[in-house]
């Protein structure tokens, strides 16, 4: 199997992490991967906040209604922000970053999971997840918090996807 397809097949969402730190070198590699993807007009309107302080990660558990359980064991959380003043494709650009980081984390043998923030409510009645994140992380109004990648070590890799198990009904040829 092609190496990239193998890496992509092995990527799974992991929501519980082992109680060990994540190496700084691994986080650096994940950030390198984040900015290697395409962006609309090459503008790259994103910013990242790498959170390793356990107290800040603990505060962020309430960023989502019901509590973002994965953050209770995460050893790092990478917030991906997009600047609406710089590009109208910030949502797509941020989603590409999230995917690239998720893949890199997996290839480093780490567990990770996408925590959606945009359009979601927080655990505080009447407060959006984004505004909750702004209170905790202090980013400006024109920067939007698309999502957070929770990261942590794992003892066992989850079952990979089978790339041959294609949802054939989703692939249309030449016309719908
Ligand atoms: C846009 C997007 C938002 C997601 N939001 C969440 C989330 O808030 N919480 C969560 O546990 N997983 C979230 N996920 C992960 C999906 O639940 C997961 O990718 C899906 O169930 C498929 O499983 P897999 O990643 O193991 O292939 C999100 C994924 C994407 C792409």
Structure in words:
The protein has 176 residues and is an alpha+beta fold. It has one domain (3-155): NADH Oxidase, CATH 3.40.109. It contains 5 helices and 4 strands, in the order ααβαβαβαβ. The chain has helices at 3-10, 24-34, 54-60, 90-107, 129-137, and strands at 46-51, 76-83, 110-116, 143-153. A 4-stranded antiparallel beta sheet has the order 1-2-4-3, sandwiched between helices. The radius of gyration is 17 Å and the shape is globular. 32% of the residues are buried. The mean pLDDT is 98. Bound molecules: flavin mononucleotide (FMN).
Structural class: alpha+beta
- Termini separation comes to 29 Å
Sheet with the most strands: spatial strand order: 1-2-4-3
How much β-strand is present in the residues? 15-25%
Number of helices: 5
The percent range for helix content is: 25-40%
Q: Tell me the number of strands.
A: 4
Q: SSE order, as H and E?
A: HHEHEHEHE
Alpha carbon gyration radius: 17 Å
Mean pLDDT: 98
CATH superfamily: NADH Oxidase
Give the overall shape: globular
Count of spatially separate domains = 1
CATH topology: NADH Oxidase
Low-confidence stretches: none
CATH class type: Alpha Beta
The set of bound ligands, ions and cofactors reads: flavin mononucleotide
Sheet with the most strands? 4 strands, antiparallel
